[in-house]
């Protein structure tokens, strides 16, 4: 049986510094603004990289994250003043994506990453030992195996700490001491037993607001992090733009170079927005889905699936029936009452929207 070599297979999703390598190089060449020690770009250039730029005299940079500019400015200023950043919000609001973009722009690398729910020992965060070398030579630098936090401090880079609230209290306390002192001790080493953080080191952490673990964070740790809440995208046109662009990128990764019909994306995003908020675009109360976040990320996944299904099953033709089918798969998860709510939403809202596309969507209500 023939199998594809793993060396020839493309990477499914490169890191941000690889995806936007050309933009980062353009910004680095253009950037004449003051740069904090250890930063690859100035705060102004970092903000342009994240929020995009169309101003004359600066590189044309794609917008990668939708948020108020003052929120981005606060996060960036906090990081340059050695305050860690804590990004909180509902699932699917692109907190991790923002942390990746910031790390790529500030450190030139976003791959120093640790997940709070996946670690149980302080050694996984800071350092451990190579048992064979430890037995042969005793505690020494050669026997030491650096963890992500060690690497970030030693190299002056951003550490991305996903779901910090899920980490055990002992690990949170270990991070607290590092954020306070910007150093930690390796008592096994007689010489060079103190690791001092190099300029550029900091932590960008994330946590979902639905996590009860957030309540267990100590007040001391909270004081060393600037909290910023990342809200769902509030402007429909902005969300349509994000879903269209991100779904197109995902389809390109599958070798599908087609754009989904805009009217279908508008329809999809409108339903997600209204079912997420329990309010129609024009301000009337409607049904609200409670068993899933109905986030922009979920809408991107539906659009991605819609395009892939059309390419591989329908010779590239997008069918409204498939839109409803994938909507149901994304919407109906934990709460059995959401099926009733979705049906009622179709009868109350979808059936009465004026554009012809909505009548086509309503035709497949029986799939719910």
Blueprint (SSEs and pairs):
Layout: H1 16-19, H2 21-30, H3 43-51, H4 69-80, E1 84-89, H5 95-107, E2 113-115, H6 122-125, E3 127-129, H7 131-137, E4 144-146, H8 148-155, E5 158-162, H9 169-181, E6 183-185, E7 194-196, E8 202-208, H10 219-223, E9 225-230, H11 236-253, H12 262-277, H13 296-313, H14 320-331, H15 337-348, H16 356-362
Parallel strand pairs: 1-8, 1-9, 2-5, 5-8
Antiparallel strand pairs: 3-4, 6-7
Helix pairs in contact: 3-4, 3-5, 11-12, 11-13, 12-13, 13-14
Question: Which features characterize this protein?
Answer:
single chain, 16 helices, 9 strands, alpha/beta, 368 residues, five-stranded parallel sheet, two-stranded antiparallel sheet, 46% helix
């Amino acid at each position: 049986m023939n199998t594809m070599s793993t060396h020839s297979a493309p990477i499914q999703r490169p890191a941000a510094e690889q995806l936007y390598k050309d933009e980062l190089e353009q910004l680095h060449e253009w950037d004449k603004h003051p740069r904090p020690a250890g930063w690859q770009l100035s705060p102004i250039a970092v903000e342009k990289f994240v929020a995009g730029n169309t101003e004359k005299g600066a590189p044309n940079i794609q917008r990668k994250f939708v948020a108020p500019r003052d929120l981005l400015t606060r996060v960036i200023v906090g990081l340059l003043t050695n305050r860690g950043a804590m990004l909180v919000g509902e699932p699917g609001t692109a907190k991790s994506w923002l942390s990746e973009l910031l790390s790529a722009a500030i450190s030139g690398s976003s791959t120093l990453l640790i997940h709070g729910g996946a670690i149980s020992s302080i050694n996984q965060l800071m350092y451990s030992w190579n048992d064979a070398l430890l037995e042969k030579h005793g505690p020494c630098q050669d026997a030491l195996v650096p963890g992500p936090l060690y690497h970030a401090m030693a190299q002056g880079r951003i550490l991305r700490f996903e779901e910090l609230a899920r980490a055990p209290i002992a690990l949170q306390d270990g991070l607290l001491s590092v954020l306070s002192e910007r150093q930690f001790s390796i008592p096994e080493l007689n010489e060079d037993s103190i690791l001092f953080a190099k300029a550029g080191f900091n932590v960008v952490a994330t946590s979902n607001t639905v996590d009860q673990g957030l309540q267990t964070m100590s007040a001391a740790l909270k004081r060393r992090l600037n909290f910023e809440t990342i809200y769902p995208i509030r402007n429909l046109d902005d969300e349509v733009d994000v879903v269209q662009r991100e779904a197109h990128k995902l389809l390109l990764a599958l070798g599908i170079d087609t754009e989904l019909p805009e009217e279908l994306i508008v329809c999809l995003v409108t339903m997600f927005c209204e079912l997420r908020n329990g309010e129609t675009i024009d301000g009337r109360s409607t049904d609200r889905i409670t068993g899933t976040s109905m986030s922009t990320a979920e809408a991107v996944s539906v659009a991605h699936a819609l395009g892939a299904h059309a390419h591989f099953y329908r010779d590239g033709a997008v069918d409204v029936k498939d839109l409803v089918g994938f909507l149901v798969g994304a919407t109906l998860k934990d709460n059995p009452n959401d099926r009733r709510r979705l049906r009622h939403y179709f009868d109350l809202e979808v059936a009465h929207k004026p554009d012809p596309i909505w009548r086509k969507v309503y035709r497949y209500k029986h799939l719910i």
